[in-house]
């Protein structure tokens, strides 16, 4: 068994004093978007490697992680939603930003229909107000 070590992270020095606040905000948004894209790519690669290895060994996901189906994660059923009265209510006309993808925004009450999944998650956790744009 080999020991895993943390990869060394070297970040170039940036003189933030030379930037305006909007430029720093734009830089943060770009970095967050790049992080999401990188994470999605890494997860997809890991999933493909894992599925390939499972196939080579003629194993299933449940063979490797038998506790997961017992927890109901792979049952295929979404978790039960909270009662509507316990959900955080978005302010009509307010715009909210997706915390994992800042390029995505949603304005409450503009279109009829279903809210994006990330909005529903933030409402259920009571965190929606933290992502309201000024």
Can you give a write-up of this model?
The chain has about 130 residues and is mainly alpha-helical. The protein folds into two domains: about 20-75; about 85-130, no CATH class. Helices cover about 40% and strands about 5% of the residues. It contains four helices and two strands. A two-stranded antiparallel ribbon has the order 1-2. The longest helix has about 35 residues, at about 20-55. It is flat and about 55 Å long. It starts with 20 loop residues before the first helix and ends in a 9-residue tail after the last helix. The relative contact order is 0.10.
Question: Short summary of the structure?
Answer:
This protein has 134 residues and is mainly α. The protein has 2 domains: 19-75; 84-131, no CATH class.
Q: Tally the structural domains.
A: 2
Main β-sheet description? 2 strands, antiparallel
Tell the overall outline: flat
Number of helices: 4
Class from secondary-structure proportions: mainly alpha
* Rg, nearest Å: 21 Å
Q: Residue-averaged pLDDT, rounded?
A: 80
Q: Please count the beta strands (DSSP E, at least 2 residues each).
A: 2
Order of helices and strands: HHHEEH
Strand composition percent: under 5%
**Residue share in helices?**
25-40%
**Strand order in space, largest sheet:** 1-2
Residue stretches low in confidence (pLDDT < 50, at least 5 long) are none
Cα end-to-end separation: 51 Å
